[in-house]
Specification:
- The protein is an alpha+beta fold.
- It is built from five helices and five strands; from the N terminus they run αββββααβαα.
- Strands 3-2-1-4-5 form a five-stranded mixed sheet.
- A hairpin with a 4-residue loop joins strand 1 and strand 2.
């Protein structure tokens, strides 16, 4: 799954979910890029922008792909040390609603 496919999948999931009321940035290991989810408006939007967010999630791109496919639960990934969360933990907790 290329970064463009990841953006498409995140956009699909984000558009089906209620606006998160905050911003989240996913930073992939090995400089694989970033995905920025802005849920501060009436709907969630997704881009490749690398800007400040309420919560930044550091994750290996393979683990992120597994979360998108449903093979890896976000809470399980966090408890297993596969996610590095900086910023508002409450925002990170909203990820479960996005990846359901």
């Amino acid at each position: 799954m290329a970064l463009e496919e990841i953006i498409a999948k995140v956009s699909e999931l984000a558009s089906a979910a209620d606006a998160l009321g905050s911003t989240i940035k996913f930073e992939f290991n090995d400089d694989a890029g970033t995905v920025y989810l802005d849920g501060s408006g009436e709907s969630n939007t997704v881009s490749l922008e690398d800007k400040e967010a309420d919560c930044t999630v550091g994750v290996d791109i393979e683990d992120f792909k597994n979360m998108l496919s449903g093979e890896l639960n976000p809470m399980g990934a966090f408890m297993g040390g596969k996610l590095n969360i900086q910023g508002d933990m409450g925002v990170a907790m909203k990820l479960g609603t996005l990846f359901d």
